[in-house]
Amino acid sequence: MQLFNAEFHLLSSLCDAPNIEGAARQLLRDYPKVVRAFPLLLAWRRQMTLLVDAETARVEVFDFAPKDVLSEIEIERYVRFLGESGLLDLLANIKSVPDYATGVEVGIDTNGRKGRSGNLAVKALTPHIERALENLGDVDFWPERTYAWMRAQGCPLTLDMAGWKWDGAFHSQTTGRWVVMEINHYGTTGSKPAAIANDYIARERELLLLGVGFLWVTDGLAWKAMQPVLKRAFQEIRFVSTIQLARDGLLEHALRSMLGPK
């Protein structure tokens, strides 16, 4: 992580920029090598294939090898990438890129524990949640819901779930079905991500027996070194997503599948 510390601090200048796209263009002109940090914030390799038009399935391949100078055409491509990948949304909702990269700003402390207050991963997802809700039409969303609140709204939870909390809850006005969502980010490896994955696998099984859907959105560099754990989660949990996949349509697809008629 220290290798990219300079780039992360440069990107932090975009976090409070009033015109974030304009500021990104200027940053790319002044410090073109900052592009090498882009894929790290998405836990990806140096080269990335990005879906840029969901309707036509058009994709572009972006390479993040550092250059001394970028042309204006290249700058516009990178700005488009920042927008299409969701990184501009992310940068607009955090205060420090170095902190985000190590998981601090999304609630991960040195032991990998997850805080729930002010979860910035939820904020980064907000534009994509709003778009999905607009397209779905009859679905309500509430962030940070508790067992007691869910039960009061008629969600069929059992008493042994009394201590459970979720980062978000969706409800279909048409079918009456519920989906709960967990969001987390891991910048460093450890035992906690594996324990969380196993816990979510077990929890989804219990929820499905009650007719309640489960969606897990997770991100961060730690997963690059813990691929077997993540692979098992993808195999066991019906809907696991990254922020980028959520943006590319997986969030809406998951909600349609779980909230629609049985």
Structure commentary:
This protein has 262 residues and is an alpha/beta fold. It folds into two domains: 2-101, no CATH class; 120-259, Trna Endonuclease, Chain: A, domain 1. The protein is 45% helix and 18% strand. The protein contains eleven helices and seven strands. The chain has helices spanning 5-12, 20-30, 38-41, 72-85, 87-92, 97-101, 120-136, 147-152, 191-209, 227-236, 243-259; strands at residues 47-53, 58-63, 139-146, 165-172, 178-185, 213-219, 240-241. A five-stranded mixed β-sheet has the order 3-4-5-6-7, sandwiched between helices. Helix 2 (20-30) packs across helix 4 (72-85) and helix 7 (120-136) crosses helix 11 (243-259). The chain is elongated, with a radius of gyration of 19 Å.
- Classified by CATH, the class of the largest domain is Alpha Beta
The H-and-E topology, N to C, reads as HHHEEHHHHEHEEHEHEH
Physical arrangement of strands within the biggest beta sheet: 3-4-5-6-7
Largest sheet: 5 strands, mixed
If you compute it from the alpha carbons, what radius of gyration comes out, rounded to the nearest whole angstrom?
19 Å
Q: What fraction strand?
A: 15-25%
Globular, elongated, flat, extended or rod-shaped: what is the shape? elongated
- Nearest-integer average pLDDT: 82
Low-confidence stretches: 51-57, 104-119
E-strand count: 7
The CATH topology of the largest domain turns out to be Trna Endonuclease, Chain: A, domain 1
SS class = alpha/beta
List the domain count as a whole number.
2
Number of helices: 11
CATH architecture of the largest domain: 3-Layer(aba) Sandwich
Taking the alpha carbons of the first and last residues, their distance comes to 46 Å
**Relative helix content:** 40-55%
Organism: Abditibacterium utsteinense
Protein name: Type II restriction enzyme
Domain Restriction endonuclease type II DpnII-like: 5-252
Pfam family, one: DpnII
